[in-house]
Amino acid sequence: MVFYPPARAGELPKVPDDVPICDFMLDEKSGRMPFASSRNPFICGITGRTYSVAQAAERVDVLARALAREFGWHPNRGSEWEKVVGIYSFNSIDYLVLCWAIHKLSGIVSAANAVYSAPELAHQLKDSRCRALFTCLPSLPDALEAAEKAGIPKSRVYIIDLPAEFTGSAKTPTGFKTLEQFITEGYSLPPLEKTKWAPGQGAKQTAFLCYSSGTSGLPKGVMIAHRNVIANTMQIKQQEQSERDARVKDGKPATGVSLGLLPQSHIYALVVLCHVGPYRGDSLVILPKFDMAQYLGAIQKHRISTLYLVPPIIIAMLRNKAVCDKVDLSSVSAIFTGAAPLGKETAEELLAWKPSWAIKQGYGLTETCTVVSSTTVFDTWLGSSGCLLPGFEAKVVSPEGTELTGYDQPGELVVRSPSVVLGYLNNPRATAETFQDGWMRTGDEVVFRISPGGTEHLFIVDRIKELIKVKGMQVAPAELEAHVLSHPDVADCAVIPVPDERAGELPKAFVVRGASAAGKDDAELTRSIQQYVEEHKARHKWLKGGVEFIDVIPKSPSGKILRRLLRDREKETRRKKEAKL
Description:
Strand order of the largest sheet: 6-5-3-4-7-8-18
CATH architecture of the largest domain: 3-Layer(aba) Sandwich
Number of domains: 2
Number of helices: 19
Radius of gyration: 24 Å
Oligomer: single chain
Shape: globular
Helix content: 25-40%
CATH superfamily of the largest domain: ANL, N-terminal domain
Number of strands: 26
Distance between the termini: 54 Å
Structural class: alpha/beta
C-alpha cells in the first residue's frame, strides 16, 4: 500500500533541475516571494544588523568574485569535488551568503557542527576532501588543529565575522582573512560568468555535504544535490500555502518573523529555516546558540511569530515558566518542532500553558533533505508528525520486507521524493542498503492512522535499532521518555534497554532531577517515577530495568538523545560489577 499526501495540499510544481541553489533563492524568476514584498531575510538577534534580499544577493555576488580569485575557481570549469569548502561556525547572518557564494562557483559546502571536537571535525574535513575552511573566533583553535590533521594549510583557514557581544574581547589574529574583507575586495573585481548548467545537472551535482550521525560508527557524509534542496523548499511552501492564503490582508501576501536559533549546519535549520523562510519572504532572527535570556529577549524585541524548536528547548521553557512569563511572548502564534519526537504529554502541557500557540510537528531526515511530513494549523493531531508533503510517496514494510497494506500496522518507513539525496560519500555499501530503486529506507518504525479530520497522519514509533524487546514485545524508548517527562519531579530523561535473563531486555530510565525533587532521596523518587509509569502503561513497558539519576542527558545539537552513549555507560557499569564479583 502506497501512502500519498492529502489532496488539499495540492500538486507539487515542476522542480527545476538546471539551476544552482543560489539562483533559485536570489532570482525572482524562480517563484520566490518578490523582493519588494519580502522582509529582510536575515537579522542578527544580538545587534539587529540586517540587509534586504537585494543586498544579500549583492553580497553573494561580490563574495563569489573574491573567492574565485582566492582559489582560482571558475563557475563553469572544473569538478565540484575540486571546490569543497568546510564551514565550522556558530550561526551567522552571513552563513547562507557564504554557502550561496560557493554554489555560485559550482562548489560544495561541507557544513560541520560548531560543537564538534577537533578530531570529529578532522574526520569530516578529510572525508569530504575540503580545500579550505571558514570558521569563527570561538572555534578557531579546534579549527586549526583539525585543518592541520586534514592537510589544509593555515593560509586556507578564514574567519566568519560574529558579533563582539558573542565573541567577547577576542580579536582576529594577524594573518587571517575575514569574510567581510573578502566582500570588500569583491566590489573591485569584475563580474563572474553566469553558471551554465545542462538540464538535469542540478539533480546530479552535490551542493551540501551534511554529516549524519547514525546510530553507530563515524558520521557519514550525505550528498545533497541542488535539486534536493530546491524540491524540499517548494514542498514545504506548497504544504503551508493554505495557511499563508488565510492570512492575506488587503491583497498583500503574508510573511512572518521566525526564530533562527537551531544550528545552521544541521539540515533542519539549513533547509526549513534558511532556505524556505527567505524563499517565501520571511525574516529569520539569527542567534549564535541557545541562551534562555537571549532567546526570550529576541522573541520580545523582534516580535517573532514562529518558533522553530527542538523538544529540549520546549521542555526547558516548561520547566522555567515563571522566567518565560516575565517576557512578552504575545507575538508568538505557532511553534514548529522537529529533529526528535515531541511526546503527546509534553505537547498537552505546552498547550495548557500557551493555548493560543499552534503546535506543529514535522518529521524528516538528512537523507530526505529534511521534511517528509508535517502538520498544519488546519490539521493538527497531537503526537503525530502530520501528513506527507506534496511530492512524497511512502510505504510501510515489515521486518521480512513485506509491504504492509493497512493502517495501524507498524513497520519501517520507506519513502520516495525529488528531495531524496544522492547517497553517502565514499560509502557504496551504506548507499546500496539505504537507497533502493528510487526509494529510501528511513530506519524508523512508523504507523499511519486516519485522523479525526479524515487524513492520513504519520506517527513515528522509534528508531528500529533502538526499540526495546521485552519478552518479544516492542517498547519504544521515545514513548516512555515522553511519559516520564510529564512527571513533576523530572527535568529530563532517556530510556535504554538493559539485558535480562528472563525477559531478554527491560527498560531503564536515566533521569535528570527537576527543581521540585529537592529533598527527596533517590529511593523515594525512583519508586514515584516507576509507579507513575505503572499507572499509565502496560506491564511490559514498566521500568523494571531501574531508574538512574544523572546530571545531564547526552544529546546531539539538534536535540536527539544519544542513547548509544548511555548504553556504553551501562555496559561499563555492569562490566565493573562483574569484575568485582
